[in-house]
Amino acid sequence: MKTLNGISGSKGYASGTAVVKRDSPTVPERYETRDHAAEEERFRKARSVCRARFTELEERAAHDIGPSEAEIFGAYRMILDDDAFFQKALSRSKSESVNIEYAIYEECRGVVALFEEMDDPYLKERGTDIENVCGEVIACLSGAGGDFAVEAGSVSDVIVVARDLTPAETVKMDKARIRGFVTERGGMTSHTVILAKALGIPAIVGAEGLMGEIAGGERLIVDAYEGTVMVDPDEATLSAFEEKHEREKKLAVEYALSAGKPAQTIDGFHIDVLVNTGDADSIKAFDAEKCDGIGLLRTEFVYMGREDYPDEDAQYEVYRDIASRASGKEVIIRTLDIGGDKQLAYMGIPKEDNPFLGYRAIRLCLDRPEVFQTQLRAMLRASSHGCVKVMFPMIVTAEELRKARECVELAKESLRGRGLPFDENIPVGIMIETPAAALLSDQLAREADFFSIGSNDLIQYVTATDRMNERVQYLYDSCNLSVLRAIRMVAENAAGAGIPWGICGEVASDELLLPVWVALGVTELSVAPSQAGKIKSLIGRIDRAKIAPAVERIFDMRSIQDVKDALGKLQG
Ligand code: PEP
Ligand code: MG
Questions:
Q1: Torsions phi, psi of 334, nearest 5?
Q2: Which listed ligand is nearest to 394 at the C-alpha?
Q3: Domain range for 459
Q4: Is residue 245 part of a domain?
Q5: Are residues 446 and 392 in the same domain?
Q6: CB 167 within 8 A of CB 195
Q7: How far apart are CA 437 and CA 492, in angstroms?
Q8: Ligand 1, closest atom to CA 457?
Q9: Are 542 and 266 in contact (CB under 8 A)?
């Protein structure tokens, strides 16, 4: 047995038989030709065949997988229609008197090399897209079939092993027989990962040396949680793995069932479990049946990928759509949290030395009344279609909260003037994500309708640790007692004022810390959609009264490790 390592792209376990995709020759034959008109004609025909093929694959992907996964083929058509690129290949073919497929291959190599040099993994993948499109055109020109389809036959549990997979290849596969993907190339944003996630198939990518180590027909175990592939496992490993896999399958069923039910502890303490959203895909996928609403709608995506600010109607459409689809469940919309790590060119924010301590979020909104008013009016209008709540990010002082609330009143006034409906009593809450807000939470609780703890930022500001800086991650720890004490203070002050409080940062779905949130009396947790069922299920296993004394002791421990050990014991 040997073990290979890669990146865990789409999590899950799989076992099956290796079917290896061997690369067809990547370099097309080069030959001399002076009949340029004929080469042009061959290219024109190949391009049109490929265009039709991409359209067919787009329809198939939309039907078999989903509309957003099908979008890649629209992008492929755009690359295919890039006249500037293919014109260069045609000119090369003419000036060098070489066949057009070879000229395309050469041009493609040059462009892909530029993308390869980029640091951004997303951009690197775009180079792969160009390579894939050119590959299809070249295959078409040279008469190669080019398609990899898993061989029919007796294999019913296929693990696809490949240097890389194109979206076209993935879409054409017989998904009923595919248990997993393992590729040598690709990163977290590769199409193999995106498609595997959409299909719910485990995938490991970036497994270096893979192609030389696995032969077709070999038995494989894929642990796409750890990113390991075991080749030709012995009986003991195989049966231990099967047991683990069975347990996982049972748990997945249990979690899926829990997602639609109310969550409550053994001793009857109820907690709402909502989801975080903040991009077009997650909004499209939002299902009110599988959670208790949206606990954090990050609105930055509405402002991204544009040349200018979105107007009120454009924003209203997004918020209205989600509010009405939530079927009466709450939707907490957070006002714009731009600045810090999220920048937009058209906003003209000058470069800052410390952007996380700079001009961001509510600071920017209060400074740009028209931007803020436009968003508030859109949110208010959406409140007539569902249970919408407004939330302000990065609050530091009570004055900021007061000013922001005045802005909400101004927006209401404007809508009244236009005769547009909205919820007059729309709840207005704040994120607690700065030490200042935690320390002032007794006062803020008297002026806010609810609190939502933004632990991602709170940890970074309480511990003075950049959440992006790898070298200081040992301090960026949710089990750091300073953070837990800050959260306890917020919980007590919210309870004292009788307002609900929740957590919408990543720690909301931290299994180890869940008993702490329960013991502190959290009223709602907002987590990634994939985690909602699991968290609800885990809440159902907690006896709040029983764990309370052990949780209380944690707040006096003397090290992060002691906290973790004590929490580990609570897991049972
Ligand atoms: C947070 O800080 O915890 C939070 C949810 O906000 P964001 O991650 O968008 O900064
Ligand atoms: Mg934040």
A1: -90, 135
A2: 2
A3: 252-570
A4: no
A5: yes
A6: yes
A7: 14
A8: 2
A9: yes
